[in-house]
Structures are given as C-alpha cells and as structure tokens.
Predict the 3D structure of the following.
Amino acid sequence: MPRPERPVPTILIIGASRGLGHAMAAEFLGHGWNVVGTVRGGTRRTPLHDLADTSQGRLEIEVLDINEPAQLAVLHNQLSERRFDMLFVNAGTTNNEQTPIGQVPTDDFVTVMVTNALSPMRVIEVLQDLVTPTGLIGAMSSGQGSITNNTTALREVYRGSKAALNMFMRSFSVRQSDTGRAFVLMAPGWVRTDLGGPAAHLTIEESIPNLVNVLLVKRERPGLEYLDYLGRTVPW
Ligand SMILES: NC(=O)c1ccc[n+]([C@@H]2O[C@H](COP(=O)([O-])OP(=O)(O)OC[C@H]3O[C@@H](n4cnc5c(N)ncnc54)[C@H](OP(=O)(O)O)[C@@H]3O)[C@@H](O)[C@H]2O)c1
C-alpha cells in the first residue's frame, strides 16, 4: 500500500523583503517547505517578490509593518484559517552604532527599542495561535544581545534592544513552559547585509543555510534556547 503523503510544512517569516529574512525564505523553499513571508506595504518591489516569481506558488507574500498594531490585526485575520509549523520574526533595525548611550537621540532610542524588542513580541503574542502545537516560535536576536559577551561596547542601543528582546522572549516562554513548545532566539553571526555592513565577517551563504539547519533541529527540543548560526549556545 502506498504511504500517505506527508503534508508540506510551512513557515511564516516576518520581515523577509531582503537580507537575512529573504535568504531564510529561499533556504526553506530549498528544504521543500512552503513559505509565507511579509514585507512592508507600498508598491516597492523587493527581492522577496523576485523569489516568489520563481517559487511555483510555494512562496506567498503578506504585508506587515511590525510597528503598526492595526496591520498586525489585519494580518492575523487574513491568516486565521492557516496553521504554521514555524513562526520566525526576523525584522529588525539599528541606529548610528558609534553613539554612546547617553548621546542617543530619544527618537532613535524609541525606534530601535520598539522595532527590535516590543514589536517582535507583539507579533509573537498575536500570531502564536496560528502555530501548530509542535511548531517552533523564534526571533532573530543577535550575539550583540549577550550581556556576558559585551566586552567592546559600541552599538549600545542595538545591544540593549536585543538584550531586551531576549528577556521578553524568556518571559513569554516561561508563561508557556507547560506546553512543551520549542522557542528560539538566534544569533546569525556578523553578516554582510545592509544592516551588517560591508566589513562583516560572514556572507549570507555562510550564515543562513547553517541557521536554518539549527532551526530545523531545534523543533525537537522543547523550551527556549539562545543559539548562534552553528547551533552553539550563546551566554545570556
Ligand atoms: N546582519 C547582521 O550582521 C546581523 C547580526 C545579528 C542580527 N541581525 C538581525 O537580523 C535581522 C535581519 O537583519 P539584516 O542584516 O537582514 O538587515 P537588513 O538587510 O537591513 O533587513 C532588515 C529587514 O527587517 C525589515 N524591517 C525593518 N523594520 C521593519 C518594520 N518596522 N516592519 C517590518 N519589517 C521591518 C526590513 O524590511 P524593509 O525592506 O521594508 O526595510 C528588512 O526585511 C535583524 O533583526 C537584525 O537585527 C543581523
């Protein structure tokens, strides 16, 4: 008797227009997954649109600015009948990395902290019911979010925002510790993207295929872990 076909798993990637999120979308397609990726609104064509054109319908694009709760409610409504095997919030931003914390303009501080710490958690809180009980919920943190490893300063607001994200994700996972669900905060390494800049140590190809393998394996391990792109634990 022929074996019943396994359903194709699907990942929802928040912030997949370009850079690491776009590369994750491509990599998951390569693993045979279906992908729903979000971009910010408007008519701008992104690398994700080009990827969708070659995906034979396996990559769908939705719209979300993570700093707009009204858009988040619309997205939830739009996807309410769907179930995802992985939810991953990749979207993030930074400011002028040289500015010491005491000299950071308040507007810059608010933008980075809201975009990197508050909004990803809002997304996760609102969309969590779309994830299957055995599905993984993750967010793109950074090695810069490690308090232990901060021996060089610089990027002070960015570091603070990712450390805050780590703390908020920890609270979220503790609230769900009786579910057996897997949660992850990822540190992709310093990667050459618009955010990482040209001096970064890694290419996207050196980081993201490894990072995706780490996510696929992490699905089997309940609880929250803070891992780098090679699967190594990052000290909090
Ligand atoms: N590159 C690195 O070295 C590095 C290292 C550690 C961690 N990370 C983290 O990895 C993630 C991706 O970074 P990247 O290097 O790929 O940067 P990137 O090339 O600048 O891409 C940033 C992504 O986040 C999206 N985004 C920013 N603000 C958003 C918002 N308010 N709503 C929705 N989407 C938003 C961008 O969308 P638009 O195209 O609409 O702007 C874009 O898709 C970030 O969380 C970053 O902090 C990067």
